[in-house]
Design goal:
The complex is a heterotrimer of chains A (624), B (289) and C (422). Chain A is an alpha/beta fold and 624 residues long. Chain A contains 25 helices and twelve strands. In chain A, the strands form three sheets. In chain A, strands 8-9-10-5-11-12 form a six-stranded mixed sheet, sandwiched between helices. Chain A has a four-stranded antiparallel sheet with strand order 4-3-6-7, with helices on one face. In chain A, β9, α22 and β10 form a beta-alpha-beta unit. The longest helix of chain A has 27 residues, at 30-56. Chain B is mainly α. Chain B is built from eleven helices and two strands, in the order ααααββααααααα. Chain B has a two-stranded antiparallel sheet. The longest helix of chain B is centred in the N-terminal third of the chain and has 30 residues, at 2-31. Chain C is built from 14 helices and 14 strands. Chain C has helices at 2-24, 55-74, 94-107, 119-132, 162-175, 192-199, 208-214, 233-242, 255-265, 281-284, 303-309, 311-326, 336-355, 360-370; strands at residues 42-48, 83-89, 112-113, 136-138, 152-154, 183-189, 218-225, 246-253, 272-278, 294-297, 372-374, 378-380, 395-400, 403-408. Chain C has a four-stranded parallel sheet, sandwiched between helices. The longest helix of chain C is centred in the first third of the chain and has 23 residues, at 2-24. Classes of the chains: A alpha/beta (624), B mainly alpha (289), C alpha/beta (422). At the A-C interface, α3, α9, α12, α13 and α16 of A face α1, α3, α4 and α6 of C.
């Protein structure tokens, strides 16, 4: 954790606290505390949502579940049974964490549950909880629960002060947690999950564990927020806490502010609360939702990554716009109250930052320096690394593989060939642990991997690339490779991982693009990135799934060089390939698959001249 | 007997749920767009039916002659906008959600948040029913089911038998290849969305026949409609009809046998189970999406 | 190309914001008319549900309040000063109520406050009022046990124990019929107020259900339904099969309309039906289906009642009708809700006049000591031991010939309670 956060966060919280503690001395209007308290409540909820949904990409529509359970916990324990209010807060956190764990445990276990299905699942949860509360009317006596003001230190002032301070502490803690997560391995794992979950798993990221941690953190924070919320509204009923308003506003705020950064929810909450407050204070209540809805619709299109990134890109412009507008309104004093001026200034700043600009032409990349291949002859085939025995894979009634036995030894470069639909990619997926065999066993370095999750298979020493490259879109080339080093068999911290990544990038000849984003790379470069990333896991066996697809002849030659280098460095390689000339150039051994069975296995020249192989590839009448 | 009655009423109402859900399901399945503004179109359809029938004193069913084309245009325009802006699946959810919020507020500003209901003189269907022995079938729900069955059967036939339908299915499976075969994105998208909009208008009219309208109703439909879409299988219209009937029957029977408060609990728990065990829907052939 | 589109959209966004900003120039909508009394206005602050679920009734209170303030100012204002009413829209959202009342009291520094509409909102507002020590007359919360703040003054009282009063009054009324009902069905909305009347609260479990049993009536059906019910057919079917003589729907809003319609679709109508807190307008639109429906009221503008109360009452009722029609309200009759609103304002004015100042404590004490005089409910006394809930003047009303008419008890009735048509 950077030293800055250790000092900066408490400082910021203390500064904001003085607004209440020294309110009377400073003449700070009490009403502003009310607005700030609202901002703090929504910051907490939006941050709670963002930790799971923004960082990992699993959109949740069920934030109301945490607010509801948190509010009810405090209402029932404190309001109905007189338990100490401060004790109810950790209880709420624990209950919500358990709820989140249950949801996550169910939803994340099932690999088919991605994206919008998860969103709808979470939408159902508050409905279920609300129905439960109604069915069992002994929980709230059927009529809702009133909460009195709990005892708080007299020196703090009024109830509004107390509410503000406790909300401030909570929001501060929540934002700090989001900050800490973002700058830690945990945060990187979540980013990788968001960008390409399967790939991340294949690189060794324990996706289930990290998603569970994220949802539990999200739940606990949301629950504590709900606790305080109960106090604020004073009277808790099913309708008031399990409503659809909370998840909708939370999503709007995080999307507006920026989902991938801890400051995003803060900005979003601040702007939306202020806007809503000023609109209602001006008697324009009927416009509030129209403005909010329209803002969401427009911003989702022009600035889908949120305001934070735009503000970060042009901070001075935004600040200038803010200063000019607010200053002008203040000095002219023509209409409105300070809050109005601040709001309009903020809006001006936001619009200025999202106003589209022409992209600056980037300097052309220098020509790549080709790393000279070091000359060591290929090692003789050594010990058995991967052994697939009598493996079969059925998809429903479709037989993809039937009784395939394949051995890969140290130092080998195995070419896996066959016509389309012969089961090559299926076999690769089985070896990488992405799929489980219907029958048969697969052993890597002596260990049976049939029951292991993909990230453990990665740790066991198998890495694969994808035919269509899937880089982590939000990270630079260097960071893409660094992820593999952070979560590999011997995990490294970020800084070291980045340094070590340089090696692997140089190996494939991408050093000149180390700081670029994947969108700036062409297909060939992206395939090289795939390879570099896979290599960074220090695999014993590298599975290259049609790594040469879509390349022109010059690019193919360059890729072949890289593959040769890989083999020389001691890693066994299995390449799935259609280009027979490449297979002949590189492979020490060729395995031919046809309609799920193994036709031939052996020396390239011999195998390729076998009649069954020719027939399978070219039909009966062709010649070799 | 009461249970049977509740089950039958539920099955009929399920037709209405299915009709509401069908448009959303098809645009999601074929166009990969989650259009929350669909609820806005149902709401507008309902309010327009109310307004036109009450002001011009015509039979509420006839109002679809106006509302269906209007919502067709609305749906098509929206889809055209999505295409121009190249909106992806998730972004469409957020964008259409923003539009839904605006629409609900506009409806509230025009018609007030009060409950609006067509009076007996305007809407003769509200209290009529057809009896079969001890079992009674309210006319409004019979109409809803009839419309739903006809429209959904029609949609199914179109998808299976006509060129346009096959084009849609090809488009759903692989847009680029479909384009290579001459299926124009620019036309298919708005066409499908327009039909979904028209179906929303009809669903809205049917809803207005038997319910009081208030703007917030649009949000109350979320739960049931998404339940039906998921259970029926995204993009499968016949599955949607079956799921609608299932949801209606389940709610009705649970209301009678246990208690009305238990119905949402059972319903949403069923959805959770279905999502976990069979996310492709209960009424589709096996296989992953 | 991309940038042109984005620019257009950004321009649109800026335009929208500009519209919002120009809109911002108008300040908060007040309800007060041009003052005729002199001096700085006394500002009364409150929120009402002008949008959202409770908006229908919220509007009634807005119009009643505006009418009251106009009349008050025309008659010289309060303490010689004009009165200005600032009302904010709480959008039927409980969380906003607390924030808005804080805003009114702490920032806008209003002189007086009056309560919002609907029980949950009133309870939230009460918490804020209690924190600042403001007197709060409120017009519609009747769950007496929950209203514990001593300076909260109810304008509509069903007595300190509505869960005992309402059932007993109802059963007394129907007992007076030539053939009183023996079989009763009770279906209850799980909302707080209605649930309270059916089942009591906390340790006091007395309610419609227990009193029905106590009186030897045959409880043939007892169901609780959630406020979010949309499919009424199953419930209607169960009621039909239970064959009650009297259907008691402790529900609110459009529940009775939904029930009656669902039952009509099954070709069934219960011989007698009672609904606790219905929206008054919608049942009248059902015609014969709703004929004979019973409910509670504190005031109906029936001719005999108005004649008893005098010319001023009649004037108020007619003026309300004019304003409500102009505001396009679906139901323009000045009845229980509007009368409760009127009571609330009269309580506030009585307290201020009695105390001779705007000091909250003095007002509160004065109201406890002397009570308040109201046009539509007579003299009210406030006993803190009973949470200020005065002995009720609540009565029973019935739809007769398409209109609500007070029918019980005899001394307040404008017509006879009609038995079921046989």
């Amino acid at each position: 954790m950077r030293w800055r956060s250790v000092v900066a966060f408490p400082l910021a919280i203390a500064a904001l606290a003085t607004l209440s503690l020294y309110r009377e001395t400073m003449g700070f209007p009490l009403f502003y505390l009310g607005v700030l308290t609202s901002v703090l409540f929504w910051t907490t909820q939006a941050t709670s949502w963002n930790i799971l949904s923004g960082y990992s990409g699993y959109f949740s529509f069920g934030q109301a579940a945490y607010v509801g359970v948190g509010a009810y916990t405090t209402a029932v324990l404190y309001g109905r049974h007189g338990v100490n209010f401060y004790l109810t807060i950790p209880v709420a956190a624990v209950l919500c964490a358990l709820l989140a764990a249950a949801i996550g445990g169910l939803a994340f276990r099932l690999r088919s549950l991605r994206g919008e299905i998860f969103a709808l699942l979470t939408l159902a949860v508050p409905f279920i909880l609300a129905a439960l509360a109604r069915i069992n009317s002994t929980i709230d006596g059927g009529q809702g629960i009133i909460l009195a003001v709990p005892p708080f230190p007299a020196g703090l002032g009024l109830f509004q002060d107390f509410l503000y301070l406790i909300s401030l502490l909570l929001a501060g803690a929540a934002v700090w947690v989001a900050y800490a997560i973002q700058h830690s391995r945990f945060g990187w794992a979540l980013s990788a999950i968001r960008d390409a979950e399967d790939v991340a798993e294949g690189l060794g990221v324990a996706t289930f564990r990290y998603k569970m941690l994220a949802i539990v953190a999200s739940g606990a924070i949301g629950g504590v927020g709900g606790s305080i919320y109960a106090l604020q509204i004073g009277f808790v009923t099913v309708e008031s806490v399990f409503s659809l308003t909370v998840p909708l506003f939370v999503i709007v705020m995080s999307v507006l502010g920026g989902r991938s950064h801890w400051l995003g929810p803060v900005i979003g909450a601040g702007l939306v609360v202020l806007l809503q407050d000023r609109l209602s204070a001006s008697g324009l209540e009927s416009w509030r939702l129209i403005v909010l809805g329209a803002a969401l619709a427009v911003l989702v299109v022009i600035a889908p990554d949120g305001l934070y990134h735009r503000l970060r890109a042009q901070p001075w412009l935004a600040l200038a716009a803010f200063a000019v507008v607010t200053g002008a309104l203040w000095t002219s004093g023509v209409w409105g109250v300070p809050l109005d001026w601040i709001l309009l200034g903020a809006l001006a700043g936001a619009v200025a930052s999202i106003w589209p600009r022409r992209p600056r032409a980037s300097a052309p990349a220098p020509a790549p320096a080709v790393a000279e291949p070091t000359g060591t002859p290929p090692a003789a085939a050594g010990g058995v690394l991967v052994e697939a025995r009598n493996v079969a894979k059925y998809f429903g009634g479709v037989r993809a593989l039937a009784d395939v036995t394949l051995t890969v030894r140290e130092g080998e470069l195995v070419g896996l060939v066959g016509p389309n639909g012969s089961g090559k990619t299926t076999l690769v997926s089985l070896l990488a642990g992405t799929l489980r065999p219907t029958r048969g066993s697969i052993q890597v370095a002596g260990r049976d991997i049939s029951g292991l999750s993909p990230h453990r298979v990665a740790h066991a020493g198998v890495a694969r690339t994808y035919q269509i490259p899937r880089p982590f879109g939000s990270m630079t080339v260097r960071d893409n490779v660094a992820i593999a080093l952070m979560f590999g068999r011997q995990p490294l911290p970020l800084a070291q991982a980045r340094r070590a990544a340089e090696q692997h990038i140089a190996f494939v000849g991408l050093s000149h693009l180390a700081g670029a984003l994947p969108t700036a790379l062409n297909l060939h470069q992206r395939q090289l990135l795939e390879i570099a990333r896979a290599l960074a896991t220090s695999p014993r066996v590298l599975l290259l799934d049609e790594a040469l697809a879509g390349l022109n002849p010059a690019e193919i030659d360059s890729a072949v060089e890289v593959i040769r280098r890989i083999q020389r460095s001691g890693t066994a390689v299995v390449i799935v390939e259609h280009l027979l000339r490449v297979v002949n150039q590189l492979a020490t051994r060729v395995v031919v698959l046809d309609r799920g069975t193994c036709l031939a296995d052996g020396d390239p020249k011999t195998v390729m001249s076998q009649p069954e192989v020719i027939r399978a590839y070219l039909g009966k009448r062709a010649h070799a | 007997m009461t249970t049977l009655q509740a089950a039958l009423s539920g099955a009929l109402i399920g037709g209405l749920y299915a009709l509401m859900a069908a448009g959303l399901s098809v645009t999601w399945g074929v166009l990969r767009v989650i259009n929350l503004a669909h609820f806005a179109m149902i709401l507008l359809g309902a309010y327009l039916t109310f307004e036109i029938a009450s002001s011009w004193r015509i039979d509420p069913i006839l109002t679809v002659a106006v509302t269906a084309p209007a919502m067709f245009v609305a749906g098509a325009t929206l889809q055209w906008t999505f295409d121009r802006l190249r909106i992806a699946e998730f972004t469409s959810l957020l964008l259409s959600f923003g539009l839904l919020i605006v629409a609900v507020q506009v409806v509230s500003n025009i018609w007030s948040a009060d409950f609006q209901r067509m009076t007996g003189s305007v809407n003769p269907y509200a209290t009529r029913s057809v009896s079969l022995g001890r079992l009674v079938f309210p006319v409004t729900t019979l109409l809803a089911f009839a419309f739903a069955a006809v429209l959904i059967a029609g949609a199914h036939l179109v998808m299976r038998r006509t060129f346009v339908g096959r084009a849609m299915r090809a488009f759903a499976q692989d847009r680029t290849i479909a384009a290579a075969f001459g299926i124009d994105h620019g036309r298919i998208g708005p066409l499908v969305a327009g039909c979904a909009g028209a179906s929303a208008a009809i669903a809205g009219m049917l809803f207005a026949l038997s319910n009081a309208l208030t703007p917030a109703t649009a949000y109350e439909w979320f739960g049931i409609v998404f339940a039906v879409v998921i259970l029926g299988g995204i993009g499968h219209v016949v599955g949607t009809l079956a799921a609608g009937v299932l949801v209606g029957v389940l709610s009705g029977v649970v209301s009678v046998l246990v208690s009305p408060a238990a119905a949402p609990f059972v319903l949403f728990s069923t959805i959770v189970l279905a999502l976990l065990l069979r996310p492709q829907g209960l009424f589709t052939a096996g296989g992953t999406r | 190309m991309r940038f042109t589109r984005s620019r257009a959209l950004t321009a649109l966004a800026a335009a929208l914001l500009a519209v919002a900003a120009t809109g911002c120039e108008s300040k908060s909508s007040g309800g007060g008319a041009a003052p005729q009394a002199s001096g700085a206005p006394i500002v009364v602050g409150s929120t009402l549900s002008l949008s959202g679920a409770f908006a229908a009734t919220g509007m009634i209170h807005k119009i009643a309040g505006e009418e009251f303030v106009d009349r008050l100012n025309a008659a010289g204002g309060l303490l010689g000063r004009p009165v200005k009413w600032v009302v904010r829209d709480d959008e039927s959202d409980q969380a906003k109520v607390a924030t808005l009342y804080e805003q009114l009291i702490s920032q806008d520094k209003v002189d007086l406050i009056i309560g919002p509409y609907a029980t949950p909102n009133i309870l939230s507002a009460m918490a804020v009022a209690a924190r600042h020590g403001y007197v709060m007359p409120q017009h519609t919360a009747v769950i007496a046990p929950l209203l514990t703040y001593p300076c909260q003054f109810p304008a509509w009282s069903l007595g300190p124990t509505p869960n005992e009063f309402v059932p007993n009054q109802l059963f007394d009324a129907v007992a007076s019929l030539p053939s009183p009902p023996k079989r009763v069905a009770i279906v209850t909305n799980q909302n707080g107020s209605t649930d309270f009347v059916s089942y009591g609260s906390g340790n006091n479990k007395t309610g419609m259900v227990s009193i029905a049993r106590q009186r030897g009536l045959d409880l043939v059906l007892e169901v609780r339904y959630p406020p979010t019910t949309t499919d009424w057919a199953p419930l209607a079917a169960r009621i039909r099969d239970a064959k009650p003589d009297l259907l008691i729907n402790d529900g609110l809003g459009v529940d009775p309309v939904n029930l009656l319609q669902a039952m009509a679709q099954l070709n069934y109508k219960p011989p007698m039906m009672f609904s606790l807190f219905p929206s008054p307008g919608p049942p009248l639109g059902l015609g014969a289906t709703a004929e004979g429906l019973l409910s509670v009221t504190i005031f109906e503008p029936n001719k005999p009642t108005l004649d008893k109360l005098g010319a001023e009452a009649t004037e108020i009722v007619n003026e309300f009708k004019t304003r409500a029609t102009a505001a396009k309200l679906p139901y323009t009759v000045f009845e229980t809700q509007a009368a409760a609103s009127w009571n609330a304002w009269e309580i506030l004015v009585a307290g201020v006049k009695g105390a001779g100042s705007l000091d909250q404590k003095a007002i509160c004490d004065k109201l406890h000591a002397d009570g308040a005089d109201t046009t539509f409910s007579g003299h009210l006394t406030f006993d803190p031991a009973k949470n200020n809930f005065w002995e009720t003047t609540s009565a029973i009303k019935q739809i007769q010939n398409g209109d609500w008419v007070t029918v019980w008890p005899a001394d307040r009735a404008a017509a006879q309670l009609r038995p079921p048509a046989s």
